[in-house]
Design brief:
6-stranded mixed β-sheet; cell shape; Asp/Glu_racemase_AS_1; Rossmann fold; 4-stranded parallel β-sheet; peptidoglycan synthesis; 46% helix; binds D-glutamic acid; alpha/beta
Length: 261
């Protein structure tokens, strides 16, 4: 049986990339809900409708686990999904906890880049309230990075001016850790690292999510049976055109070349 990986678009591939490294003997259904992208600019109730449509589709395809490889979808719907489906469901949330733990002793701050919806949602606020006792965490929405990723535009000449513009109000030397709290953002990790002073740690929750999935499948004795094959869907339609498939393959290759990702 396949593992389903779900996102609004190509961002979930940053998680899929980690999962395939940890679990090479699995097959995957990758579902990008591009008809309703960007999730990060939409309210929770609207998102829930789209997310349930997508998960109904995936569950009908006999999957052994679902990875919600989207911080925004996780914050909007993970609890409701777990109530409604009996398969294991793994979500992703901004890696605020490890960031605060590693940054506090350095007397530095944490910058959390995510979507507007993630940063607005109660789930995020509860997380920060629980962990950020010394007011170290600053939020920053970065919607255009989602657009650039969806256009497969990784050209630093397009990405850097946007990053610089958004970061203008911040003193970058204050930050010890930058959290990439949207799965689209690790696609630009190498470029983001260039913008911050040397030594700033840029982290995301992709590997943690992959490890969580691995532990869950092992506990259920459900690992193996595949060879890394991926079938791609866009909002319920199988992706078969060679140009899009080539873009996906190139993106997975790009993720291989980004250090530490
Ligand atoms: N990749 C998604 C996330 O992790 C959101 C992108 C979007 O706005 O659709 O939050």
């Amino acid at each position: 049986m396949n593992i389903a990986v779900f996102d609004s678009g190509v961002g979930g591939m940053t998680v899929l990339h980690q999962i395939r490294k940890l679990l090479p003997n699995e097959n995957f259904l990758y579902y990008a809900d591009t008809a309703h992208l960007p999730y990060g600019e939409k309210p929770k109730d609207e998102l829930k409708k789209y997310i349930f449509e997508a998960v109904d589709f995936l569950v009908a395809h006999e999957i052994k686990a679902l990875v919600v490889a989207c911080n925004t979808a996780t914050s909007a719907a993970i609890e409701d999904l777990r109530k409604n489906y009996s398969i294991p469901i793994i979500g992703i949330e901004p890696a605020v906890k490890p960031a605060v733990i590693e940054t506090e002793p350095k007397k530095k701050k944490v910058l959390v880049m995510a979507t507007r919806t993630t940063l607005k949602e109660e789930k995020y606020h509860r997380l920060v309230e629980r962990i950020d006792k010394h007011d170290l965490v600053d939020p920053l929405p970065m919607p255009k990075l989602v657009e650039l990723a969806e256009a497969f535009d990784f050209d630093p000449e397009h990405v850097i001016p946007y990053l610089k513009e958004q970061l203008k109000p911040f003193d970058l030397t204050q930050y010890g850790t930058v959290v990439l709290g949207c799965t689209h953002f690790p696609i630009f990790k190498d470029i983001i690292e260039q913008i911050f002073p040397k030594g700033t740690h840029v982290i995301d929750g992709g590997l943690g999510t992959a490890m969580n999935l691995k532990r869950t499948l092992e506990r259920l004795h459900q690992t193996g049976g595949g060879n890394g094959k991926i079938i791609f869907y866009k909002s319920g339609v199988k992706v078969e055109d060679s140009e899009t498939l080539k873009h996906y393959a190139d993106l997975l290759e790009r993720l291989d070349t980004i250090s530490g990702s």
